[in-house]
Description:
single chain; 141 residues; mainly alpha; Arc Repressor Mutant, subunit A
Amino acid sequence: xxxxxxxxxxxxxxxxxxxxxxxxxxxRFPERLALIKEELGVLSQEGLQSDSRLAEVYVRSRAEQGRxxxxxxxxxxxxxxxxxxITAALLKCDVNWxxxxxxxxxxxxxxxxxxSITERAKRSRFFRxxxxxxxxxxxxx
Length: 141
């Protein structure tokens, strides 16, 4: 079946959420929505597609890149992963977000502390864009 082959080809490259696969397959097979949904159900039952597995892999990967939990959460939501899967992945990954923030801070700014309120605000914006919470950022200054 063309739909199954296309879906497996996408999954062979990287993990995809069910919603991502649906969107991509609909672009290729616009008239076959029912067949696509059926095939996605089969792939999920066979364990070939899993939103939970995607969330775990994604959390670990993005945390290693220096992203905070809030940004990771938003990115996974955009991919169509449910709140329960995201929460479980964030808990399961066992990332120390404060250590992660400290590592990002050291890499970006060295060991120096901000010299002015303006510099502190600039750093805070940088960390917020990376997805760290205000509470986490507050531990740096």
